[in-house]
Design brief:
The complex is a heterodimer of chains A (406) and B (177). With 406 residues, chain A is mainly beta. Helix content of chain A is 14%, strand content 39%. Chain A has 2 domains: 51 residues, no CATH class; 338 residues, Neuraminidase (6 Propeller), CATH 2.120.10. The radius of gyration of chain A is 23 Å and the shape is globular. The chains are: A mainly beta (406), B mainly alpha (177).
């Protein structure tokens, strides 16, 4: 065609503003693919203003993913994205230098890693920009305790706090020690929790971030241990699970955030017996201050009819249990069944036909599934002032100085 | 406005609108072709409306950034949208058909013209169409279509592909449609 020839002869130039208007209309997988078109496209797509524009007009929920910890040395992290496909969330670029990286916690788009190679170190990485910051370990480095991460975005910059809970016995009296790290002052602070008088067993579950407060699931999922690092008080708070809950040591239940609320979902059984799906209940924490739950929805035991692909998968007595909430849609709960991730619709009381298959032998723990989500406003990880010598080391690890890639 | 009732003595007829309907303008493309168009259709382009208002129209309006073929297409669009009695449903259907047969090169020409002439509806329609065509395409297809040379090394490309492998699932074959 004549016009096309003209175009290529003149050296085709497409105005950036039109191009951006076209790109924001593409689905997320295309966006990630087209970063590869050229440096200029990658620059456009990686720009914070593009991302906010993209997320704002996105019809679906912002992209999110779950990280599964897997691999013998936990160096690999599987990534189940919103597109229901699995990929190897290639361990961060520094993993060669720090084998045995483990995901400790996530908050929005930040991942907290810990490496126990040679000496224990923590890293905070932005999962989308792939920028990473290493920070110094506290002196009580040998102690191991569940860790929480909480991030906030202010004026395009991310700030975060890390809190470790370390149990200790102080002259036969039970007590909890807290170690907190803040990106704002770049240092650790250690203190004893004042009001912890009864025995607390922290479950091996990711810390739940809700209303800017860290919540550890404890005592086999019968309570939540809440701590607000921003109020820098030395006090914990306990929140119980719903009184009427039918608790099976936490095996049958999940606690988590979906949209604006904290939910508790449980099944009255953890396997398919006589081709029946057990009944279930979903509670919402109605009054956070008082710790009052209310029943949101429930489902009765249901016979499995061989009507869809999922029914055919669900055929044995193997364990079937909930593993995660959809971060934005409370009507969706994800289940784990023999290496499959099933999507359960609360509204329908049944599974969606789509499911993902995961090689379960490589998964370290199905309790440790970390949600990741793209923030509504993309932010930057602050460059630390506390450890500039270590930063130089990262420059060596990653020679690509193009910092704008997602 | 009671546009349907085209009674010449009707009270509701805006005399200014009537004048626009009968007045014609001449648009001149970059390759010298001239097109007649009613003023009411032409002013759907904000750029042309401004030229008419500023009275720099002076008979023939030169559009040095739009070639004849593209201008003819744009005028077809403007005429349809200025047409009396065309329902929104009809216009939507027209828009759909209008862009569906166009090749990517033509869509690019039209989107550039719509941008230059500031025709919002057309711009929206064509942008959507381009995004629709692009969404399941390969990186190579996009480069070819947008006339872009890759400035990544094969290693860099491989690395990005590895990092976001899921984004490469469900890519169509590079058949031009």
């Amino acid at each position: 065609m004549e016009t096309e020839e003209d175009v290529s002869d003149q050296g085709f130039h497409f105005p950036e503003d039109i191009l951006l208007e076209i790109l924001v209309r593409l689905p997320a997988d295309s966006i990630f693919r087209f970063r590869c078109v050229s440096r200029n496209w990658r620059c456009l797509i990686s720009d914070p203003s593009f991302l906010s524009c993209y997320v704002a007009r996105s019809q679906e929920s912002p992209p999110f993913a779950f990280i599964f910890q897997c691999g013998k040395y936990r160096g690999m992290h599987l990534f189940l994205s919103a597109f229901n496909t699995l990929q190897n969330f290639s361990s961060p670029f520094f993993s060669d230098h720090f084998p045995g990286l483990k995901v400790e916690a996530t908050s929005n788009d930040l991942i907290l890693y810990r490496s126990d190679f040679q000496e224990p170190v923590y890293f905070v990485a932005n999962s989308f920009s792939r920028k990473c910051v290493k920070f110094p370990m506290h002196s009580s480095r040998r102690s191991i305790g569940p860790t929480g991460l909480i991030s906030r975005a202010r004026n395009g910059m991310t700030s975060y706090n890390v809190v470790r809970v370390v149990k200790s016995c102080d002259s036969s009296r039970f007590c909890l020690n807290l170690e907190t790290f803040s990106s704002e002052n770049g240092g650790w602070r250690s203190f004893k929790a004042k009001n912890c008088t009864f025995n607390v067993e922290l479950d091996a579950r990711p810390c739940v971030v809700y209303k800017g407060v860290l919540h550890w699931i404890c005592n086999k999922m019968t309570a939540l241990l809440a701590y607000d690092p921003c109020r820098s008080s030395d006090e914990f708070r306990f929140i119980s699970i719903p009184n009427e809950a039918y608790n099976m040591n936490g095996m049958n239940a999940i606690l988590g955030v979906s949209g604006e609320n904290l939910y508790y979902f449980e099944m009255f059984g953890i396997s398919i017996q006589e081709r029946k799906l057990p009944g279930w209940k979903l509670w919402v924490l109605q009054d956070y201050k008082r710790g009052e739950w209310s029943l949101d929805q429930e489902g009765k035991e249901r016979k499995i009819e061989s009507i869809c692909a999922v029914s055919n998968v669900l055929s044995t007595y193997s364990p079937l249990f909930p593993v995660a909430f959809h971060p934005w849609n409370k009507d969706i709960v994800y289940f784990w069944y023999e290496g499959y991730v099933l999507t359960f619709s609360v509204k329908k009381g049944w599974f969606e036909d789509k499911f993902s298959s995961v090689r379960s032998e490589s998964i370290v723990s199905t309790w440790e599934i970390f949600p990741l989500s793209m923030p509504l406003r993309p932010t930057q990880l602050p460059q630390p002032q506390w450890d500039s010598s270590k930063l130089a080391m990262f420059a060596d690890v990653k020679p690509d100085t193009d910092q704008r890639n997602i | 406005m009671a546009r349907k009732n085209r009674n010449p003595v009707g009270k509701n007829v805006d005399p200014e609108a009537q004048k626009k309907k009968t007045r014609t303008l001449t648009l001149k493309s970059s390759d010298g072709q001239e097109f007649s168009i009613s003023e009411s259709a032409a002013v759907l382009s904000i750029a042309i409306e401004n030229m008419v208002e500023d009275d720099c129209a002076g008979g023939v309006i030169p559009l040095p950034l739009v070639d004849g073929g593209t201008l003819a297409r744009v005028i077809t669009y403007l005429n349809k949208h200025a047409e009396d009695g065309a329902s929104d449903e009809e216009k939507r259907k027209f828009d759909e058909e209008f862009v569906s047969g166009m090749e990517m090169g033509v869509l690019f020409d039209v989107v550039l013209a719509a941008n230059y002439l500031d025709i919002r509806g057309l711009l929206r329609e064509v942008r959507r169409r381009i995004a629709d065509r692009m969404k399941n395409k390969s990186v190579e297809w996009v480069r070819k279509t947008f006339h872009i040379e890759s400035d990544f090394t094969p290693e860099e490309e491989e690395q990005m592909k590895k990092e976001f492998a899921w984004a490469w699932e469900g890519v169509d074959s590079d058949v031009d449609d």
